[in-house]
Every structure is written in C-alpha cells, then in structure tokens.
Write a structure and sequence with these properties.
CATH superfamily of the largest domain: Hypothetical protein rpa1041
Structural class: alpha+beta
Shape: flat
Number of helices: 4
Low-confidence stretches: none
CATH architecture of the largest domain: 2-Layer Sandwich
Order of helices and strands: EEHEEHHH
Strand order of the largest sheet: 1-3-4-2
Radius of gyration: 23 Å
Distance between the termini: 69 Å
CATH topology of the largest domain: Alpha-Beta Plaits
Length: about 130
C-alpha cells in the first residue's frame, strides 16, 4: 500500500475525498476503508497556513469508481448511525441543549452576550452617529 503525504498534486491524480471540516474519526475511517480494499491513495494537508486543500487523492484514477462507491456507502451508513445515536441520546435525556448549557454556566452566557453587544456597538456605533 502506497500512502504518501505530499504538498503538491501530481498531474494524473484524482481528488477523492476533501478533508476540510471532516471529523478526524471519519477521515481515519475513510483511510482504513481504502487501505482494506487495496486502493492506493495519498493525502495532502492544509499546509502551514491552512490555505491548501486537505484531501485524499487517488494515484490511479481507474480505481475512482470503486473508491467513490465505498465512501458513499460508508457515509450513508455513518449518517444513519449518527442519526440513531442522536435520537437515542435525545430520548434518554443525554443530549445537551443550549438551555442546558446556559443553566450549567449562566455567568459565562451573560459574559458572552455582553461581549457580543459591546462588539456590535463598536462596529455599528460610528455609522449610527454619522446619520444623526
């Protein structure tokens, strides 16, 4: 299995799976899925400044259809599993709502609201005073 981390993208490579905003457990599952099925891939990172394209790329674009099907099936299964876990947590009262978080730390909530109001005043205040 040839897994490489590269900064550049070869000419014949084909992007298979974007990694920006993807949870690490999902990215790891995709890596393992591709490795289990003998699909050669490499990975690019977001780079030092986070402006490059983090993704999983295929070396052999002839494997694209097989890899895409594997990932699509995995994501469908993951979606169903996540929804089921969410509904289970919600029905047992384990799911934390915004109201729960406010009740746990009301002073923190008030502090954040005060900061937001202050920032809005700083940014909008000059425009309101110009109009008067």
């Amino acid at each position: 299995m040839n897994v490489r981390h590269l900064a550049g993208i070869p000419e014949m490579a084909k992007k298979l799976f974007g990694l920006r905003g993807v949870p690490e457990d999902e990215a790891e599952d995709v890596r393992q899925l591709l490795s289990r099925h003998g699909i050669d891939y490499y990975e690019t990172s977001a780079g030092n400044w986070g402006i490059s394209m983090p993704a999983i790329w295929l070396d052999d674009e002839h494997q694209y259809d097989q890899a895409r099907k594997l990932i699509d099936d995995y994501q469908e299964e993951r979606s169903v599993r996540m929804r089921r876990e969410y509904e289970q947590r919600k029905s047992t009262g384990q799911y934390e709502t915004l109201a729960d978080r406010i009740r746990q730390a009301p002073l923190t909530f008030v502090f954040y609201i005060a900061i937001i109001i202050f920032l809005l005043y700083l940014f909008i205040g000059p425009f309101v005073s110009i109009g008067q």
